[in-house]
Design goal:
This is Leucine-rich repeat-containing protein 49. By secondary structure, the chain is α/β, with parallel strands linked by helices. It is 57% helix and 10% strand. It folds into 2 domains: 218 residues, Alpha-Beta Horseshoe (Leucine-rich repeat, LRR (right-handed beta-alpha superhelix)); 67 residues, no CATH class.
C-alpha cells in the first residue's frame, strides 16, 4: 500500500499531457489552460479554505478572466495571485482583477508578461485596485507614498472614463456597486459586533470600490470579437431592412405616379360607362335585379 503522506500528496495533484493542477500547502498551482477546468471540481471545504495563494502559469490571461468568479467562490480565502507566462500585455487587463473578493499580494513574473516593462505598471495596479489595500507587489511592500503617487498619476484617468462613458453604462455600474454593498449588509446582518469588526477590511473590499475606478473595465479579446460580430450582424440586418423599406417606398411612389397619369382618363371612362349603363332605366333596373338574383 502507498504511504499515507504520498497518498495525500497525490490527491492534491492532477496531471495530464497538457496541464497540471497542484495543491501544495496553502498554494494552488495551475499550469496550462486545461487546469482552469479544475475550478469546477467539488473541492473539499478544508482544501478550499486552506488555499490563500493561487498561481497561474502558461495560461492566457483572457482565459483566466473568465474563471475569476469561480475562483472567488471556490477559494474565498485566496489573497495572493501569481502570474507567469500569462500574456499580460497591457494595463487594462488589471481592471479584471477588481471583481475578486480580496488581493493582498500580487506577483507578476516578467517571463511572458510584457506589461512589467511599463515603468508605471505597479502604480496603475495600486490605483485601480486601491479598494483591496494591497500590501505587496512582486514581494515589495506597498507604502503610503506609493498610494499617493498612484492617485496623482492616474486619478484623472478615472474621471475621464466616468465622464466619457454613456449614461446607461454608468447606471449599470452604479447598480453593480449597490448590489455589492447590499450583499455585504445581508451577510453581516445578525452577526456579533466583534465578528463584524474583524470583517471590516473585507467589507471595504467588497463595497468600497470607487465608482470612478469601476468605470475602468477590461473586455477580453474573444468577448470583444463576439460583440463586434454581433454589431456587424445587427448593422447588416438594419441595412437590409432599410433597403427593403426604401425599395417598397420606391415601388409605392412609382405606382402612385402612374396612377396620377392614368387617373384623368380612367375617371372619364368610369363616368362614361356609368352614364351608358343607366341611360335606359328599365334596362338598368332589370340588370340590377338579375345581379341580385344571381347573388342569391
Amino acid at each position: 500500500p502507498l504511504d499515507p503522506v504520498l497518498t495525500s500528496a497525490l490527491q492534491g495533484l492532477s496531471v495530464t499531457d497538457t496541464h497540471l493542477v497542484e495543491v501544495d500547502g496553502d498554494t494552488l498551482s495551475l499550469y496550462g489552460s486545461g487546469a482552469l477546468e479544475s475550478l469546477d471540481r467539488n473541492w473539499s471545504v478544508q482544501t478550499a479554505g486552506t488555499v490563500t495563494t493561487v498561481s497561474f502559469a502558461f495560461i492566457e490571461f483572457d482565459e483566466i478572466v473568465q474563471v475569476l468568479p469561480k475562483l472567488k467562490m471556490k477559494f474565498p480565502n485566496s489573497m495572493h495571485l501569481k502570474f507567469k507566462e500569462t500574456n499580460l500585455v497591457m494595463l487594462q487587463q488589471f481592471n479584471a482583477l477588481a471583481q475578486l473578493r480580496r488581493i493582498d499580494q500580487l506577483t507578476i513574473d516578467p517571463h511572458g508578461n510584457p506589461v512589467v516593462n511599463f515603468t508605471l505598471w505597479k502604480y496603475y495596479v495600486l490605483f485601480r485596485l486601491s479598494h483591496f489595500s494591497m500590501q505587496k507587489i512582486n514581494g515589495t511592500e506597498v507604502t503610503q507614498n506609493d498610494m499617493i503617487m498612484a492617485e496623482r498619476l492616474f486619478g484623472i484617468l478615472a474621471h475621464v472614463a466616468s465622464s466619457e462613458l454613456p449614461q446607461y453604462r454608468v447606471i449599470s455600474i452604479l447598480g453593480d456597486a449597490r448590489k455589492k454593498q447590499f450583499r455585504y449588509l445581508q451577510e453581516t446582518k445578525g452577526k456579533k459586533p466583534g465578528i463584524v469588526n474583524e470583517e471590516n477590511n473585507d467589507s471595504k473590499r467588497l463595497a468600497g470600490e470607487n465608482t470612478n475606478r469601476a468605470m475602468l473595465n477590461y473586455t477580453t479579446r474573444d468577448f470583444y470579437n463576439e460583440k463586434l460580430e454581433d454589431i456587424k450582424e445587427k448593422k447588416k440586418f438594419c441595412q437590409m431592412y432599410i433597403e427593403d423599406l426604401v425599395k417598397e417606398a420606391t415601388e409605392i411612389n412609382k405606382k402612385n405616379e402612374a396612377l396620377q397619369k392614368l387617373w384623368p382618363q380612367m375617371f372619364i371612362e368610369l363616368v362614361r360607362d356609368a352614364v351608358i349603363e343607366i341611360r335606359s332605366k328599365n334596362s338598368y333596373m332589370k340588370l340590377c335585379l338579375q345581379q341580385i338574383t344571381d347573388q342569391k
